[in-house]
Design goal:
The protein has 197 residues and is mainly alpha-helical. 74% of the residues lie in helices and 0% in strands. It is built from nine helices and no strands. Helix 7 crosses helix 9. It is elongated and about 80 Å long. It starts with a helix and ends with a helix. 21% of the residues are buried.
Length: 197
Amino acid sequence: MIAAGVLIALEKGRRWPRAKTLSKLEPALGWPDGRLNEMRDEAAASLSTTVEAPLLASAIELHLSTLTAAIDRLPDVQAPDYTPLVTAILTDLRNVERLVADAARTAKGTPAIARTLGRVRQMYGDLMTKAARSPAATLGQRLYATRSATGLTAEEAANAAGVAASAVLELEAGGDVDPVVAAALSRLVSDLNRPDG
């Protein structure tokens, strides 16, 4: 059915059999028509992900260097233009985090992506916490910093405030929430920051 040399070349990935040979080989293996081509495509996609992941990590690291420079140029937290500037950087970091998190879910065996994701999240957390110290900090920034300091997840904070967890995440991401929800979260921030806790 298939010459030994052709089979060895196939197994080592050096040569792909002709369609006529595939049509004999797949039934002999008990596989449906086209299964070998599917396996080849899956292997190619896996290899592509393995190659692309380190390149993506390098590109993100380069972008993070730019963001680090922008963070270093921020004025003092007391400055009136601090909050708009830091909010723009935080939005950029959230977008980068989403991109790297998606890559981390699909790229297997790529520690470079995991390291980069950890770095992005650390930068974001540190900057949100610093942003919350500004007199003009947004409620979302103050909520994030308070939640992080008390070790609460978004769901736990939402339960404590009597709101949906999605509202906590939306507010922290700079989005708008219902005024009643915002008031409940503002009360939670005040309650958690009281000295008697």
